[in-house]
Amino acid sequence: MGKKLDSAPNTGGAASGGHDGHGAGHTPASDPGILGTNVGELDTVLGVARRSGVTGAVEATVPADAGTAFTVTQTREPWQFSTDSIAIEGATGTVTDVSRFADWPLAANLTSWGIALHMGLLFGLLNQLILAALAVALLAVIVRGYVLWWRRRPTRGTARTVGRPPARGTWRRIHPVVAVTGVACVVLVGWFVALLGISLVAFLLVDVADGALGRTRAG
């Protein structure tokens, strides 16, 4: 069972929930939501975790069976770029395992940061505002796409069964710096978001094939 709380000592009486990371403690006897025969060891476990560097807002997993180690993990909070975890025996306070974010492979670090960024947690309010702006921009692109299709739609008196395709050669009219920057961003996103990258490569291949076929017919 996981419980989010603050591992800092309680200096002000009643706990305030432990979500803000400003000294809120945890009193197991006053929390009926935590079950198990070894709940009284939780304060000891949090103290050991704090001395081991697992501080701030944490989530503690209380074992269902006596003799099983507690797990204390730092939760994702704004501007927190690491989430260490530690396993501690409640009866003896012995550390049985430690997982340091700094020891993770680079790919795992980037994945964790990417998830927090996508959830709007990594940079707090700033992160959420950027995501909101991105959502508005995406909606604008979708609406603009339908507008462009409507302008190119088949009309009466034309032999086309589908919309008129946009003019080719747009990339050649873009400034080289803008083009290189755009390609670099697309490659970077496609590398870390493989499914999107595969879709982009497939789209590029279809577009290249269509252009080659058009030139062949014109020749």
Structural summary, described in words:
The chain is of the alpha+beta class and 219 residues long. Helices cover 43% and strands 11% of the residues. The protein is built from five helices and five strands. It has helices spanning 42-51, 106-118, 124-152, 176-192, 194-218, and strands at 2-6, 57-61, 70-74, 85-88, 95-99. Strands 1-2-3-4-5 form a five-stranded antiparallel β-sheet, with helices on one face. α4 (176-192) packs across α5 (194-218). 13% of the residues are buried. Mean pLDDT is 78; it is low at 7-36.
Unreliable runs, pLDDT <50, ≥5 residues? 7-36
Strand sequence of the main sheet, in spatial order?
1-2-3-4-5
Question: What is the chain-wise order of helices and strands?
Answer: EHEEEEHHHH
Helix percent reads 40-55%
β-strand percent reads 5-15%
Number of strands: 5
Distance between the termini: 70 Å
Shape: elongated
Average pLDDT figure:
78
- Main sheet makeup: 5 strands, antiparallel
Instruction: Please compute the radius of gyration using only Cα atoms.
Output: 27 Å
